[in-house]
């Protein structure tokens, strides 16, 4: 199973690794997407969106994909409107697919490992979507 995701107080706290023995999911290799030219950034967003859509719903727990999604969420204010929509829709869609699976497993499963992974993914998707919402709110209140 992937390391546990613990809600940080801020998005940036995910870059500060916890202690080695606490088995928490933190960002290990953030991508500096702010330095990308717009065409490269668009392709990066499309690649992340494709990976999230094409792979297992729990793929968000994989370190490489987690780091790439984090990097895009952190840079959300500088993304083009189409990239913002792509990222937001992909995260929302995956969360919508995850919820019925989580509900089913919580009612029917005695095996806590899959349920734990689904809960972990639920927290990750929720946190990233909440971070985007807060970024949008911050930009509109300026």
Shape: globular
Annotation field: number of helices: 4
The whole-number mean of residue pLDDT values reads 90
Poorly predicted spans: none
Instruction: Give the DSSP E fraction (strand runs of 2 or more residues).
Output: under 5%
C-alpha-based Rg, rounded: 15 Å
For the biggest sheet, the summary is: none
Q: Could you tell me the number of beta strands?
A: 0
How many angstroms does the end-to-end distance come to? 41 Å
Domain Condensin complex subunit 1 N-terminal: 82-141
GO cellular component, one term: condensed chromosome, centromeric region
GO molecular function, one term: histone binding
Pfam families: Cnd1_N
Can you walk me through this structure?
- This is Condensin complex subunit 1 N-terminal domain-containing protein.
- It comes from Phaseolus vulgaris.
- Residues 82-141 form the Condensin complex subunit 1 N-terminal domain.
- Pfam families: Cnd1_N (PF12922).
- By secondary structure, this protein is mostly helical.
- It has a domain at 59-142.
- The chain has helices at 38-54, 63-74, 81-108, 112-140.
